[in-house]
Write a structure and sequence with these properties.
The complex is a heterodimer of chains A (about 450) and B (about 425). Chain A is an alpha+beta fold and about 450 residues long. Chain A has 16 helices and 11 strands. In chain A, the strands form 2 sheets. Chain A has a 6-stranded mixed β-sheet with strand order 1-2-6-3-5-4, with helices on both faces. In chain A, strands 7-11-8-10-9 form a 5-stranded mixed β-sheet, sandwiched between helices. In chain A, a hairpin with a 5-residue loop joins strand 1 and strand 2. Chain A is globular. Chain A starts with 17 loop residues before the first strand and ends in a 14-residue tail after the last strand. In chain A, about 55% of the residues are buried. Helices cover about 40% and strands about 20% of the residues of chain B. The longest helix of chain B has 19 residues. The N and C termini of chain B lie far apart (about 65 Å). Classes of the chains: A alpha+beta (about 450), B alpha+beta (about 425).
């Protein structure tokens, strides 16, 4: 009564993805979804916070966020009038390695969307009034983050795990550093770091791929920037030498948020796939894996608990997170640490592994339902040089992981006596208090 | 009726709605019950949401944990949501495995166990969920504003429930709530995806047709009376930013005023995405953004309405610009409201609202889960016809309709203004 799943044509591959490198270096990836009346456009260029100086941290993010504040030929009002009048969206954000953009529109409006993308990427003028308006918005957003116990725990975790490393700094900066950013910093950042080299754009939806490529070529093919700087190398990450605890008491809160972990393998490492499969067992599969079973199901201590593994050029965070009542903080930390200890000392069972392998392989069609889902996948393949045929070999790749590979990867990265352990929010009166640094 | 679409009520009252879509080899099933926080009285607030948690704790046929594992192994995902008017259980799976979900939904419609042990462990989990919400001052203000807006109607309390009830609700309370509301005649099963509808209907009749229905619960809710004047709530807490949560009355989803109100919302605060999928559209050209953010009285403004059985709220959230006052924001807002009441909006603004709605629907329609969601969701407050005629009815709204709705609903005496102010501007950080 149903169509077979895992039909390979569901997955994007070399036969239906058009990949074209323009003469100026921009890589275009396009795939048609003829069922869709709309298009998703997303991409990145190497203009992330990795270029930011500490004293003006947030410049990359500020620059990206201000691209739509006005160009040589369009005011803030005109840009948004054009976008909103057709129900389209276009957003920019700053990451550590790149500035990223995401847009969407009805398929018929793609030329206008690309024209706006090109204009905002190439010719932003950062009007002084608009820069101040944006600064007020960023400072307010940082205020809200400062009052958010999950954000505070996450920021403290990054600082502990990645001291003197770009991954330890919040891309959006701190209040003090954002206040120091001047309009000329934005202009300079744009001049030095925005350009076609290293830019990738992915277009998916109700559009012929050749047509999509020619539209990108028309909008961005002429772009050149001889001043565009190459990204610096990431500094080597230094593992923690001991367990690092930080407790951040916050007023007006009802519970505490925990983040426990360290850095995991980079995406390019052979350890990554075993770690990613193992991480599903630790804190994802079903109702949040082993951690969910122990902390939520058996102990009833937390509504949310899970583990995450960053997918990064460098060593992304590998962590467990949970929200618990103040009186349960120590018990929850103990349970999480003992599960991590089990994870790094005993191989996972074949049954657990088979469950997770089946889930990872079987769920792929669900992730590729939306145009944006496919666009994100193609960007991921390009960024990490995985090849357009990656999805065709995905099942074999996942099925090749063994319990020993997971154990080897996990025990290499997660050493229980060398983890960062952070709790932020409402804490018990007698908890050891150690207000974290920050800005 | 459309090809590939079946809508049929079984003898026991279960409404089945099926739609064949073959854009991907997947299927999405949504089991809806007409029960939410609206059906709760003080003492059992939070019961609908708690029952939703218990529905994942197993039946005799499918003990706790068995299905979780089975569904995940098959590459599917499942979850549930409880809202004001409804509770829904959804799963999206590779299409050939959707039978598993149907069997489960049939089974837990009447066979969930609700063991004392599971009630006890979920109590602490749900209290933790509420405490997580309480960590956010926006939740605390929103809860207080909603409670003030509904003194009498059961929309008074938040879906999560009051802490005092979460501490004292018993297994018997929860099981009674479950038995009362979980009945075929109080439910809608919506399935969309890569299947043949006639054979899917046969399968569903076989699984669900023999489940007996009882007398349906009668909603004994009370109508919210008009207020004699505006309510104001002042809340203080740690932080640096002042924000406000302002609500006006809004019509119920099936009301003919709902569509002009959607256009009004779009004009004032930007298009609301009524879907649970795919995000919204920016609102930089909306009237309140122009009046508040462009004039640097606020750093952000957003707003929206929800589709509900009974009249609910149009909620506007504003974060005040540092150095500006709440009173300036309220005054600027009132000026815009007055403008809308005194002048019908130009056609171009209405055209933009319609185009935005069309685009939002186009984005959502990529997803089979979205299609299945609307098959059932529209039945909670009206019928599926509401969804199918949505864009046409929106396009038929006139400037005079919008003006009339503004005059009728955006009434100062009937609104609630909640303000959150930081009580200590010095202590936070440097």
């Amino acid at each position: 009564m149903a169509e077979p799943a895992n039909n390979l044509s569901v997955f994007p591959g070399p036969e239906d993805v058009l990949r074209r490198e323009l003469p100026n270096g921009i890589v275009v990836l396009a795939r048609a979804n003829l069922f869709s009346p709309s298009v998703a456009v997303s991409g990145y260029l190497p203009a992330g916070s990795i270029f930011d100086r500490d004293e003006k941290l947030g410049t990359a993010d500020f620059t990206a966020s201000c691209l739509k504040r006005g160009t040589r030929t369009r005011s803030f009002q005109q840009i948004h009038q054009q976008l909103e009048s057709i129900g389209a969206g276009l957003g920019f954000s700053g990451g550590t390695h790149s500035a990223e953009f995401t847009g969407r529109s009805l398929a018929e409006d793609l030329p206008m969307l690309l024209s706006l993308l090109a204009d905002t990427l190439r010719f932003p003028v950062f009007p002084a009034r608009q820069v101040e308006r944006h600064r007020a918005s960023v400072l307010t957003s940082l205020d809200f983050q400062w009052q958010d116990s999950q954000d505070r725990a996450g920021m403290a975790f990054d600082e502990l795990v990645y001291p003197a490393h770009p991954y330890g700094r919040p891309d959006e900066g701190y209040r003090d550093t954002v206040k120091r950013i001047r309009r000329r910093d934005l202009l300079q950042f744009h001049r030095k770091h925005y350009g076609p080299k290293g830019m990738v754009i992915s277009i998916i939806g109700g559009i012929d791929p050749e047509k999509a490529v020619s539209l990108v070529e028309a909008a961005l093919g002429e772009w050149r920037n001889p001043q565009q700087a190459a990204p610096p190398d990431l500094p080597e990450w230094q593992p923690l030498r001991q367990r690092e605890d930080r407790r951040i008491p916050m007023e007006g809160k009802s519970q505490a948020d925990l983040v426990i972990g360290t850095a995991g393998p980079p995406r390019s490492s052979d350890d990554f796939i075993p770690a990613a499969v193992g991480n599903q067992i630790l804190g994802n599969f079903g109702m949040m894996g082993r951690l969910g079973e122990k902390l939520r199901e058996e102990a009833g201590l937390a509504y949310y608990v899970y583990s995450g593994l960053g997918t990064s050029v460098g060593p992304g965070a590998w962590f467990a997170a949970a929200g618990v009542a103040p009186k349960d903080v120590d018990q929850a930390i103990e349970i999480i640490l003992s599960e991590i200890q089990r994870f790094v000392t005993e191989p996972v069972s074949f049954e657990e592994l088979a469950d997770v392998q089946a889930n990872l392989i079987g769920s792929q069609p669900l992730h590729l339902e939306s145009n944006l889902g496919v666009a994100s996948l193609l960007l991921h393949l390009e960024r990490h040089q995985l090849g357009l045929d990656y999805m065709q070999g995905y099942a074999d790749l996942i099925n090749s992981v063994t319990p020993e590979m997971i154990l080897s990867s996990a025990s290499h990265y997660l050493q229980v006596d060398r983890l960062a352990v952070v709790a932020a929010g409402r804490l018990e009166q007698d908890s050891p208090r150690e207000e974290g640094g920050g800005d | 009726m459309n090809e590939g679409f079946i809508r049929k009520t079984l003898e026991n009252g279960l409404l089945v709605s099926l739609k064949e879509i073959r854009t991907a080899p997947i299927a999405s099933a949504w089991m809806w019950y007409r029960v939410g926080s609206r059906n709760e009285i003080p003492g059992i607030t939070g019961a609908s949401h708690w029952v939703e948690h218990m529905q994942f704790k197993g039946t005799a046929a499918y003990p706790n944990g068995v299905l979780d594992r089975a569904i995940s192994r098959l590459g599917g995902y499942w979850n549930a949501m409880t809202h004001l008017d409804w509770t829904t259980y959804f799963s999206t799976m590779p299409a050939e495995h959707i039978d598993l979900i149907l069997k489960l939904e049939a089974d837990r419609l009447h066979g969930s166990l609700f063991t004392e042990e599971h009630v006890a462990s979920e109590r602490t989990v749900i209290i933790s969920e509420r405490q997580g919400h309480e960590n956010n001052p926006g939740f605390l203000l929103g809860e207080a504003v909603q409670a003030a807006a509904f003194r009498v109607h059961s929309y008074h309390h938040h879906v999560i429930g009051d802490m005092t009830d979460l501490e004292r609700l018993t297994r018997e309370d929860l099981y009674y709530h479950y038995q009362t509301h979980y009945q075929p005649g109080n439910a809608v099963l919506a399935v969309a995806g890569a299947f043949e509808p006639e054979s899917m209907l046969e399968k569903i009749e076989e699984l669900f047709g023999r489940i007996p229905g009882h007398e349906l619960p009668v909603f004994s809710g009370r109508e919210e009376p008009l207020r004699v004047g505006e309510y104001r709530i002042e809340m203080e807490g740690p932080g640096d930013s002042t924000f406000i949560d302002l609500v006006y009355p809004a019509p119920r989803g099936a009301d003919e005023d709902f569509f002009p109100y959607l256009v009004l919302d779009s004009l004032l605060t930007g298009a609301s995405n009524l879907n649970l999928f795919g995000g919204g559209i920016s609102n930089k050209t909306s009237r309140l953004y122009q009046a508040l953010v462009e004039r640097e009285i606020a750093v952000s403004v957003s707003g929206g309405i929800q589709v509900t059985i009974d009249p609910f709220l149009y909620q506007i959230s504003i974060t005040i610009h540092p150095g500006r006052k709440v009173s300036e924001a309220v005054q600027a807002l009132e000026e815009e409201v007055e403008r809308l009441k005194s002048e019908p909006p130009p056609d171009t603004e209405l055209e933009r609202a319609v185009k935005q709605a069309r685009a939002l629907f186009a984005y959502g329609s990529e997803s089979i889960s979205f299609q299945a969601f609307w098959l059932g969701f529209a039945e909670m407050f009206d019928t599926y016809d509401w969804f199918e005629t949505y864009l046409d009815r929106l396009a038929a709204v006139t400037p005079e309709d919008v003006q009339r709705v503004a005059q009728e609903y955006l009434v100062r005496q009937q609104r609630v203004l909640g303000v959150f102010r930081p009580y200590d501007r010095e202590a936070a950080h440097g």
